[in-house]
């Protein structure tokens, strides 16, 4: 789903042979292994989720060019050795900190002076059909929880001014924020998409409030809304993300 973005992140990180890289909120390790394949000497994936880290370990093929390790930790507070990384990367893993100022400062101190930070974050929901299309169908049936504008959540880094403010406050400069628009593969077909959407955290938190009849109707409504998005190459929805690049300038 996010393969194109992975390539953009790894390319922007300009990983040199032997570089030491940390992947924050690495999830199942896609970007961690991509950084290793790009020639890093060592890549450390950090995530709070034990099941995702188990999946990341399962994906180890033994062919990784760099040494890949995974740590289960909260990147906001984890005691990284100061100046120990040439680059920090993250694909959608920096939006969930309870205190992003502390978290970005912690990531900054893990980087050597001049080290690069490259990450992706979602732009506003309105710019992401990937979210708005299924959510509009869901919202017609169940009240959805509101994300606080600056609280942790998928859209907490949607505002470029906030990104700049957080990064410069943590000691980063040379900040560039590039819009990346895409229509990635989401699912094979509408049934595959409905099953995927039902598995998301949001759906699992609100759908138990619906009875069987309403759940059945919701599935049909989702299928109708998603059908026009079917292509010969799977079901595709529009996304808009920020690709953010910055350098740590030590104080
Ligand atoms: C949207 S997922 C992205 C996962 C992965 N980077 C990818 O693109 O597939 C966000 C990830 O950040 C992790 N995460 C959230 N808060 C974190 C924190 N404070 N420290 C480390 N990881 C965190 C989650 O467990 C999750 O795996």
UniProtKB/TrEMBL annotation:
<keyword id="KW-0808">Transferase</keyword>
<protein>
    <submittedName>
        <fullName>Methyltransferase domain-containing protein</fullName>
    </submittedName>
</protein>
<comment type="pathway">
    <text>Phospholipid metabolism.</text>
</comment>
<dbReference type="GO" id="GO:0032259">
    <property type="term" value="P:methylation"/>
</dbReference>
<comment type="pathway">
    <text>Lipid metabolism.</text>
</comment>
<dbReference type="InterPro" id="IPR029063">
    <property type="entry name" value="SAM-dependent_MTases_sf"/>
</dbReference>
<dbReference type="Pfam" id="PF08241">
    <property type="entry name" value="Methyltransf_11"/>
</dbReference>
<keyword id="KW-0489">Methyltransferase</keyword>
<feature type="domain" description="Methyltransferase type 11">
    <location>
        <begin position="22"/>
        <end position="119"/>
    </location>
</feature>
<dbReference type="InterPro" id="IPR013216">
    <property type="entry name" value="Methyltransf_11"/>
</dbReference>
<dbReference type="GO" id="GO:0008757">
    <property type="term" value="F:S-adenosylmethionine-dependent methyltransferase activity"/>
</dbReference>
């Amino acid at each position: 789903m996010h393969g194109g973005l992975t390539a953009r992140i790894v390319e922007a990180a300009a990983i040199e042979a032997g570089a030491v890289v940390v992947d924050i909120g690495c999830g199942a390790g896609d970007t961690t292994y991509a950084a290793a394949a790009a020639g890093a000497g060592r890549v450390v994936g950090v995530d709070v989720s034990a099941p995702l880290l188990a999946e990341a370990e399962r994906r180890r093929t033994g062919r990784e060019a760099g040494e890949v390790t995974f740590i289960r930790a909260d990147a906001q507070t984890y005691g990284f050795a100061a100046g120990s990384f040439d680059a920090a990367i993250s694909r959608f893993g920096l939006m969930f900190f309870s205190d992003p100022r502390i978290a970005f400062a912690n990531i900054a101190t893990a980087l050597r002076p001049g080290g690069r930070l490259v990450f992706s974050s979602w732009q506003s929901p309105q710019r992401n059909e990937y979210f708005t299309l299924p959510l509009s169908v869901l919202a017609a049936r169940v009240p959805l929880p509101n994300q606080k504008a600056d609280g942790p959540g998928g859209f907490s880094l949607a505002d470029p001014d906030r990104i700049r403010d957080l990064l410069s406050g943590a000691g980063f400069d040379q900040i560039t924020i590039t819009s990346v628009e895409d229509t990635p593969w989401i699912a094979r077909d509408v049934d595959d998409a409905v099953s995927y959407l039902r598995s998301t955290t949001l759906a699992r938190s609100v759908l138990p409030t619906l009875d069987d009849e309403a759940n059945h109707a919701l599935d049909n409504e989702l299928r109708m809304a998603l059908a026009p998005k079917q292509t010969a190459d799977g079901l595709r929805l529009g996304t808009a993300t920020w690709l953010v690049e910055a350098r740590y300038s030590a104080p």
